[in-house]
Write a structure and sequence with these properties.
Layout: E1 2-6, H1 10-22, E2 28-32, H2 40-46, E3 50-53, H3 62-67, E4 70-74, E5 80-83, H4 86-92, E6 97-104, E7 114-121, H5 126-147, E8 160-162, H6 178-186, E9 196-200, E10 203-212, E11 219-227
Parallel strand pairs: 1-2, 1-3, 3-4, 5-8
Antiparallel strand pairs: 4-6, 6-7, 9-10, 10-11
Helix pairs in contact: 1-5
Length: about 230
C-alpha cells in the first residue's frame, strides 16, 4: 500500500518516521511536513491509496480531496465538536475524556463519513495529550487502514459546533476557581500554542507546567514575564 502522511507537529513527525521504518518493504510511506511539499503534482506522481493528515493546519487543495482518500483525525466524538480548537473547547466544557474520530475529508468541515473512533483521555497537559493522541493514531488507527479496506459511514446525530479559540481567550481572570485556572494553563501547554496569561501592567505573565496540590488548595506553575509590544 502507498500512503502519504502530512503533519506539522513534532510528536506526529517522530511517530510517522517510526512507522515508515517499521513498514519498509511492506508499505511505501511518504511524509510531508511542509505545505509546499504537499502539492497536487507530488501527490499525483505518488498515487497514494490513502493520505493521512494528523494535525495538518492548512487548507487541502480540492484537487487532492476529490481524487484521493484523505483522512483527518479529529479529537472529538463527531458529530459533537466539529470545528476549531477541539482540545481546548473540550476541556473548558469539563470533559475528561473524548474520542478520536478518523473521518474522510469532504467539503463540510469535520462533516465527512467516519472510518473509526478510539477513546482518548484528556488528563495532563496539552503536550501530554497530543503525544497520547499520536500514540493512538500511529499505533492503533493507521495500522487498521494498512490491514484492510475500511468503508466509512455517515455521521449520525445533530452536529455541535466548536468555535476556534483566539489568543485573547487564554486570559486568566480573577473570577476563576483554581481548577479552572489549572485547566486553562494545561490545555495550552504545548508546542505552538499561546500560553494562558494574566495582563500585568506592561507585561503578560504567561504560565506553563501547572501542578495542583493534592488537596486542591494550591497550584504551582512556571511563569514568564513578557513585555507587551
Amino acid at each position: 500500500m502507498r500512503i502519504i502522511i502530512a503533519t506539522i507537529k513534532s510528536w506526529n513527525i517522530e511517530r510517522a518516521q517510526a512507522l515508515q521504518k517499521e513498514c519498509a518493504g511492506t508499505h511505501e510511506i511518504v511524509i510531508y511536513t511542509d505545505r509546499e511539499e504537499f502539492s497536487v503534482d507530488n501527490v499525483r506522481d505518488f498515487q497514494p491509496d490513502y493520505i493521512f493528515l494528523p494535525h495538518w493546519s492548512y487548507i487541502i487543495p480540492k484537487e487532492i480531496t476529490d481524487d484521493w482518500e484523505c483522512v483527518v483525525f479529529h479529537m472529538t466524538d463527531l458529530p459533537y465538536g466539529r470545528g476549531g480548537s477541539p482540545l481546548q473547547n473540550l476541556i473548558v466544557r469539563g470533559h475528561r475524556e473524548t474520542k478520536i474520530s478518523a473521518i474522510r475529508v469532504t467539503e463540510t468541515l469535520d462533516g465527512g463519513p467516519i472510518y473509526m473512533k478510539h477513546a482518548l483521555s484528556l488528563d495532563g497537559s496539552a503536550s501530554e495529550i497530543f503525544v497520547r493522541c499520536a500514540d493512538v493514531i500511529f499505533g492503533e488507527m493507521i495500522p487498521k487502514f494498512l490491514e484492510r479496506k475500511i468503508t466509512p459511514v455517515p455521521q449520525e446525530g445533530e452536529p455541535v459546533l466548536f468555535k476556534r479559540r483566539k489568543p485573547e481567550d487564554s486570559a486568566i481572570t480573577p473570577d476563576m476557581e483554581l481548577g479552572t485556572i489549572y485547566d486553562y494553563i494545561r490545555m495550552l501547554d504545548a508546542e505552538g500554542y499561546p500560553r494562558a496569561f494574566i495582563r500585568f501592567g506592561d507585561y503578560r505573565m504567561e504560565f506553563a507546567d501547572a501542578v495542583p496540590s493534592g488537596d486542591g488548595q494550591e497550584l504551582s506553575a512556571r511563569v514568564v514575564f513578557r513585555k507587551i509590544e
